Amino acid sequence: MAVDASSVTTPRDPGEEPGKRGWRDRGGDRERRTTSWTALLSLLPLGLLAIACWYGQYVRPSADEWCFLPRVRDQGVSGLVDRFYNVDNGRVANALMVGAYAKFGVAGHQWFGPVSAVIMLAALWILTVLVLRRLGQRVPLGIPLLIALTVSVVFFFACVNIYKTFYWPAASVSHTMAPILAAAVANPLLLAHGRAGRIAALVLTVVGGVFIGTLSEETSMIVLVVGGTIILFAHLFFTERVRGYIRTWAGCYMLGIAVGMVILMTSPGSVHRRQRYGAQSTTDMLSPHNLTVAFKAYAHILVKTMPTWQYLGAVAAGVILGLVVRSAGRRSTALKPVRPLVLAGLGALVCLVSGYLCTVITLPVFGSRATSTDRVWNDWLLLYILLFVGVGVMLGRALRLRTNSRSVTGAATLAAAAVYAGVCLSLVAPMTHLGHQMHVRAEKFDRQDAYLREQAAEGKKTAPYTPTRVGHMLEPFGMKSGWPVQCAAQWYHLDKLTHGTRIP
Questions:
Q1: For residue 484, is the peptide bond before it cis, meaning its omega torsion is within 30 degrees of 0?
Q2: 222 vs 200, 356, 461, CA distance in Å?
Q3: Fewest Cβ atoms closer than 10 Å to its Cβ: which of 376, 416, 476, 504?
Q4: Euclidean distance between CA atoms 264 and 218, whole angstroms
Q5: Does 432 fall in a domain?
Q6: Residue 210: CB atoms within 10 Å
């Protein structure tokens, strides 16, 4: 996290003598054992991800994708970018990512889940490795992967609607991938060495900020909150030698976000979207009445999401990390010692403020549906999951530093592993149940798809369509407005679809 600097000064690990390599030499067997059971524990979230990716073959188009597919087929990705910028919402980067999977038709939807899962897991894994390295901490092999898997699995599957979070490509691009990609923008900073490396990191950060700014408004708001917090409170965490650069980096990220949001908000598509939904002006949106309504809506959302007991899996993984992490022996030249309660309290405040502001900016579009449009919560829920992991790390490290008893730390590790395993196993049933529903829907969809294509091939201009729903997704004839009936008809080269009552 710093300029050519690596770690926080940490107390010597229990039992490690001055001037000796200690834990690495005398604890080699213990580290190998830790690596072994960590690998076994990682099989649980890996297995869950594998099951989820396998069910990706049953994904079929829904909602917005009925309109994306024919446009990309007929006009290419550039046609979709033009549509987003001039008509729909102004999200240029979003259009590029949507076009990347829509150009492959139904197969693109099927492969989106597995491919995006690999990308997001890799981004979190690299971020974890780089953070630990910059903090000057050493962990057994497999621990960074375990942490990345934990964040991924809890984020993807311990949620209100797994389908919209993981399988629905349009929602995942905007609200699942977006916050993870935003976190990955920190990777160039963590990799930077030397003057050229630091300058390159700043340039990449600005570019990344512009991309995120035209990808997701909610994630952009979160970056602004986190960046502002870094600038305001850098004196609490960073030494004077690197404080200026860290603040410059945060400022560059915020600048990129601001540029991206200006591009988005001033686009004809964004203006049209606000007019279409009757969204208020910025002045009205920030009025005391609307801020109060947003606060009540946010409180309602928190009541629905925070009791999710599977979040304990994130805490448990953090405890395991805190129990096994060891100092690499390098003194810090970048970070100040910080009281854990101060760090946790500030992190909680950032989470609360970010979530509230995201609710403020979504309320004008969704209105009362903001408390039920669960896909837009994911942008800020990732912050909470990261906070839970961090709290777990503090608890595990505090326990390790306050006891010399291996039996105590061993029992704590075993308890954390048991909780972690329980969380992973509890997510299997909802996943398999959804997978069965997706399979049933896919079979119905494919029969109807073949029928509609036959009708078009025979020269028919009209054909019946029966909605096939999964995961509370919208389908043609699912709304009074008829959306997206005409898009589906265009996809099948028909002039019109009528509301059918049975699958052919």
A1: yes
A2: 24, 10, 48
A3: 504
A4: 13
A5: no
A6: 21
**Across all residues in the chain, what is the average pLDDT?**
87
With 0-12 CB in 10 A as exposed, 13-18 as middle and 19+ as buried, what is 24? middle
Res 278: pLDDT: 65
Does 319 lie in the same domain as 183? yes
Side chain identity at residue 195, one-letter code: R
**Same domain, yes or no, for 415 and 454?**
no
Give residue 7's pLDDT: 38
- Find tokens 């805490």 and name the residue: 315
328 closest CA partner among 30, 15, 12: 12
88 contact partners, CB below 8 Å, separation of at least 6: 269, 272, 273
Per-residue exposure over 131-164, b if at least 16 CB sit within 10 Å of its own CB, e if not:
bbbbbbbbbbebbbbbbbbbbbbbbbbbbbbbbb
Q: Domain boundary at 404, 426, 448, which?
A: 426
- In 3-state terms, what secondary structure has residue 61? coil
How many folded domains does the chain comprise? 2
- The burial of 100, by beta-carbon neighbours within 10 Å (0-12 exposed, 13-18 middle, 19 or more buried), is given as middle
Helix axes 217-237, 378-401, angle to 10 degrees: 30
| Helix locations, 339-427, DSSP H | 340-366, 378-401, 406-426
Q: Which residues of 214-237 are buried (b: 16+ CB within 10 A; e: fewer)?
A: bbbbbbbbbbbbbbebbbeebeeb
**Which residues of the chain fall below pLDDT 50?**
1-26
Give the pLDDT confidence score for residue 482 in this predicted structure.
64
The residue assigned the tokens 């690299």 is 126
Q: Which domain holds residue 166?
A: 23-426
Bridging pattern class, strands 462-465 and 326-327: unpaired
> Quick count: other Cβ atoms within 10 Å of Cβ 457?
9
Measure CA 478 to chain center: 28
In a domain, 336, yes or no: yes
What span, in angstroms and rounded, lies between the C-alpha atoms of 138 and 290?
Answer: 48
Residues 131, 247: one domain?
A: yes
**Is there a single domain that holds both residue 403 and residue 309?**
yes
* Residue that terminates a domain, selected from 392, 426, 460: 426
* Same domain (yes/no): 420, 444: no
Asked if 401 and 14 touch (Cβ cutoff 8 Å), the reply is yes
Co-location of 361 and 444 in the same domain: no
Residue 328 has what pLDDT? 67
Question: Which H/E stretch holds residue 327?
Answer: strand 326-327
Q: CA 255 to CA 259: how far, in whole Å? A: 6
Whether residue 14 is contained in a domain is answered as no
Do 452 and 488 fall within a single domain?
A: yes
Q: Which of 67, 353, 336 is nearest to 228 (CA)?
A: 353
